[in-house]
Amino acid sequence: MKNFPDDFFKKSSRAECRLLMLDYDGTLAPFRTDRDQAFPYPGVEFRLDRIISDEQTTLVIISGRTIADLKPLLNLKKYPEIWGSHGWEVLTAEGQYKLSRPNESTRKGLEEARSFICNNSFEKYMELKPASLAIHYRGVDINKILVLKNKIVDNWNSLMDRYNLTYSEFDGGLELKIPGLNKGTVVKTLMERFPRNCLTAYLGDDLTDEDAFSALPDSALSVLVRREYRETKARAWIKPPEELLEFFDRWIEAYDSA
């Protein structure tokens, strides 16, 4: 664990409120070419069950995936609160689902992008979400990726100004988005629900998690979860799965010893 504050888990053992926010792909689970097979690292679900059972800890998963795609990958005794599609949908721990609907004019931009992808026979790479459209090219030949990216980015650039859209790269793909919500806005929403002295941590791996890292207060712990280090706003770095499991074990030990 790099740059990890030694006193964090000591504070955790004394905290009456704990908030643990977790990304999914690349953080709790390894990346897979077949995204439907991206199950958590061995040992993760057992530890998540333990943490969820702690009455003083709120565990939240925040993902770019849709909630419908994410739930079958998680074999948990009880689902925690889950935010999907970069914050456009939420499933509460009590099982209530809410979808925030973008306006129709920006939705038309996504529909034009979808039509372009289908007309160019790229639909096998496409994932359509409530407020975005993702292109996944993990495992694709590098020359095909270049052709794919050039054509799609040219099209997306033409749509951005007309429909107030944005696009960004993530680990293994591109995503065209309706702006307004992201992992950072989710973090801010969650932080408003908890007292200021609530012990808080966010673990993530991707560029989309940088919004979350930036939204955290100085008192919170932000952790980059990757095999290889990259520049980040996170305060600490751990390598999955070994150090990820160690983090969860130390979190559990801290409240067990309280």
What is the SS-derived class? alpha/beta
Shape descriptor: globular
CATH topology grouping of the largest domain: Rossmann fold
Rg, rounded, reads: 19 Å
Count of runs of 4 or more consecutive helical residues: 8
CATH architecture of the largest domain: 3-Layer(aba) Sandwich
CATH class of the largest domain: Alpha Beta
**Main sheet characteristics:** 8 strands, mixed
Order of helices and strands: HEHEHEEEHEEHEEHEHEEH
Determine the N-to-C terminus distance. 23 Å
Low-confidence stretches: none
Question: Overview of this structure, please?
Answer:
The chain is α/β, with parallel strands linked by helices. The protein folds into 2 domains: 17-30 and 40-100 and 181-257, HAD superfamily/HAD-like (Rossmann fold); 104-177, 2-Layer Sandwich (Alpha-Beta Plaits), CATH 3.30.70. The chain is built from 8 helices and 12 strands. The chain has helices at residues 8-14, 44-52, 67-70, 104-119, 142-163, 183-191, 210-215, 242-256, and strands spanning 18-22, 57-62, 81-84, 89-91, 97-99, 126-129, 132-136, 166-170, 173-177, 199-204, 221-225, 236-238. The strands form 2 sheets. An 8-stranded mixed beta sheet has the order 5-4-3-2-1-10-11-12, sandwiched between helices. β1 (18-22), α2 (44-52) and β2 (57-62) form a beta-alpha-beta unit. α1 runs parallel beside α8, α2 (44-52) packs parallel to α8 and α4 packs antiparallel against α5. It is globular, with a radius of gyration of 19 Å. The model has no long low-confidence stretch (mean pLDDT 94).
